[in-house]
């Protein structure tokens, strides 16, 4: 049997209510409190808003549950009250409907989780679906007439929410909406046609667009969907334009009269669920009600020419020459690289001299760290660029995701590429709690595997995270971290496979001091790693240094006989070099090069190791030093 809501939509357009958050904000409810908590803290305020929309002429109420999922509620310490808050929201809407004796439909509002799904983020699809199930189960059990998924920018995420709803109650209607920008695609680059195809294939009863920058972008998205899927049922629920902040207040420019014209145009297009998102008020809904009432149900819909869907064909420039590092890997050259720390101040003299010395010793490339141990340093892409231009040796830029939002990540990538830095080593980065500024924010929008995927499938294809054209593709070579000696080899193997699937071109390993460590990993991996591997080499400086690494640095274990050698050696730094060279010899057939991390910035030790590796006579090299 067809659901009553779907039967009613088939007869003509329904008008939804307007913004809930805007109304709560105007009544003194703070963003910091979390609007969903009003269902249990100030239920009468929520009910008053529902009743105002019903009196304005709304046919549909959305529950005040846009962010009432476990992830969002955890920001306010309410993660264990998901069911309670969602049930309360439904009951408030039902009470408003009964008080005014209006036969309005009630839709359970479900918004995104605020965390990206793998591979761009750390949240797995299975975890996301479970979180959505918890919220949607509560809404359905409380008696909603349907579920409305809104303001999603990730197609993968909204599909998990849609699947959750259909698993719980296959017959309940689901309205699935995404948000589109001025460029006609979602924040993650999904085109309207692709959105409609995916959502309809997953069982959405109504598909559409909401929020965005206003009615024009929403209607444009709907038109492109209709061109491909003319028989689908559509919703259009835009913002009241682009918000502005004035005198401490958030204002939206689109007037009720403008929204009245939008409602009429949407109805003429055949849109069946029409309403307002952020910034819309009972006045907007009242104007839309009058406009829809003036459009007589049953009259032929005036023919309107469809706007053509523009197709942009982009010319991709021919790739430039591979980086020196890529050429070294391709030729089978045994690569040597040394990690350099940018200076704390503005003087680069010592660093550039060190870079020249290491180049003279034979280093293939030089690694430039980014705020190692979360300590303030000069921006590494500036250092990398200056080393390349003034010393004439290529660099590998360390690029942590921690402490960077999506805007900074992408801006920094463009800056690096513009400066000619094309080798990128993607890592999570050190937490600020251990560094110079422990109270500094170190949140992040994207995990390392997600950044690798963004670079290889986005930037290197000429598009940013939102699908916007960069004008030309970038040409980054991307490295990832590997721990041969991880305590959980199964997990490390799985993680490496994920990194390679996300586009990693090479690996830099953590240091190790036992030649059996990489062999055990390769056995667990099922054979040699498919991409080049540079073994991390951290020469021991003395017995205290060795004891510190062994006892206090996670992931590093130093065999007892190595600790004994460092304790009894007369020239301890040189004994550390001997141990490093012996280890390189022992595993040279398993790796493609070495990545030297000089102890205590003793770069002369790194140069000594490079010369010895290339000469192949370690005894003579030690005597010359």
From TrEMBL:
Residues 2-292 form the Hcy-binding domain. Keywords: FAD, Flavoprotein, Metal-binding, Methyltransferase, Oxidoreductase, Transferase, Zinc. It comes from the Bacteria. The keyword Zinc applies. One of its GO terms (molecular function) is methylenetetrahydrofolate reductase [NAD(P)H] activity. Its cofactor is Zn(2+); FAD. The keyword Cytoplasm does not apply. GO terms for biological process: methionine metabolic process; methylation; tetrahydrofolate interconversion. Pfam families: MTHFR, S-methyl_trans. Zn(2+) binds at residues 211, 277-278. Pathway: One-carbon metabolism; tetrahydrofolate interconversion. PANTHER family: SLR1189 PROTEIN (PTHR11103:SF18). NCBIfam families: PRK08645.1 (NF006396). This is Hcy-binding domain-containing protein. It comes from Ardenticatena maritima.
């Amino acid at each position: 049997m067809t659901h009553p809501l779907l039967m009613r939509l088939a007869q003509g357009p329904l008008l939804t209510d307007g913004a809930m958050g805007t109304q709560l904000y105007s009544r003194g409810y703070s963003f910091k409190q979390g609007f969903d908590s009003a269902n249990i803290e100030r239920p009468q305020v929520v009910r008053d808003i529902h009743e105002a929309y019903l009196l304005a002429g709304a046919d549909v109420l959305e529950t005040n549950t846009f962010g009432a999922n476990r992830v969002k509620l955890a920001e306010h310490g309410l993660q264990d009250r998901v069911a309670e808050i969602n049930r309360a929201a439904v009951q408030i809407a039902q009470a408003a409907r009964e008080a005014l004796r209006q036969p309005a439909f009630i839709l359970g509002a479900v918004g995104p989780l605020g965390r990206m799904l793998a591979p761009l983020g750390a949240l797995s699809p299975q975890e996301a679906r479970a979180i959505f199930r918890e919220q949607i189960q509560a809404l359905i059990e409380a008696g909603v007439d349907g579920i409305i998924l809104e303001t999603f920018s990730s197609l993968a995420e909204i599909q998990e929410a849609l699947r959750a709803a259909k698993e719980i109650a296959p017959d309940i209607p689901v309205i699935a909406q995404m948000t589109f920008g001025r460029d006609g695609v979602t924040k993650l680059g999904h085109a309207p046609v692709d959105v409609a195809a995916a959502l309809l294939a997953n069982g959405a009863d109504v598909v559409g667009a909401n929020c965005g920058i206003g009615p024009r972008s929403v209607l444009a998205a709907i038109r492109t969907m209709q061109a491909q899927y003319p028989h689908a049922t559509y919703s259009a629920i835009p913002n009241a334009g682009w918000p502005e902040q004035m005198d401490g207040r958030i204002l939206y420019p689109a007037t009720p009269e403008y929204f009245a014209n939008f409602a009429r145009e949407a109805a003429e297009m055949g849109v069946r669920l029409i309403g307002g998102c952020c910034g819309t008020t009972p006045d907007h809904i009242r104007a839309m009600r009058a406009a829809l009432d003036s459009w007589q149900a049953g009259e032929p819909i005036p023919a309107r020419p469809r706007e053509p869907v523009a197709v942009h064909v982009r010319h991709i420039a021919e790739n430039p020459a591979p980086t020196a590092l890529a050429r070294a890997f391709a030729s089978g050259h045994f690569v040597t690289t040394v990690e350099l720390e940018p200076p704390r101040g503005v003087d680069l003299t010592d660093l550039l001299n060190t870079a020249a010395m290491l180049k003279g010793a034979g280093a293939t490339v030089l690694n430039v760290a980014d705020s190692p141990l979360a300590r303030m340093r000069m921006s590494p892409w500036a250092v990398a660029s200056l080393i390349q231009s003034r010393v004439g040796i290529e660099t590998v830029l360390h690029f942590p995701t921690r402490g960077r939002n999506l805007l900074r990540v992408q801006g920094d990538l463009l800056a690096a590429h513009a400066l000619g830095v094309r080798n990128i080593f993607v890592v999570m980065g050190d937490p600020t709690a251990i560094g110079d500024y422990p109270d500094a924010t170190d949140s992040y929008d994207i995990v390392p595997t997600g950044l690798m995927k963004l670079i290889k499938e986005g930037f290197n294809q000429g598009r940013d995270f939102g699908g916007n054209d960069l004008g030309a593709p970038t040409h980054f070579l991307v490295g990832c971290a590997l721990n041969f000696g991880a305590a959980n080899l199964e997990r490390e193997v799985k993680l490496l496979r994920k990194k390679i699937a996300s586009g990693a071109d090479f690996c830099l390993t953590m240091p190790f001091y036992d030649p059996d460590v990489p062999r055990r990993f390769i056995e667990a991996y099922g054979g040699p790693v498919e991409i080049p591997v540079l073994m991390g080499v951290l020469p021991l400086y003395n017995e205290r240094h060795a004891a510190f690494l062994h006892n206090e640095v996670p992931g590093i274990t130093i065999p007892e006989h190595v600790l004994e050698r460092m304790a009894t050696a007369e020239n301890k730094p040189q004994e550390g070099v001997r141990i490093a060279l012996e280890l390189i010899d022992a595993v040279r057939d398993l790796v493609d090069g070495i990545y030297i991390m000089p102890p205590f910035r003793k770069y002369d030790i790194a140069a000594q190791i490079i010369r010895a590796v290339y000469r192949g006579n370690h005894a003579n090299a030690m005597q010359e030093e």
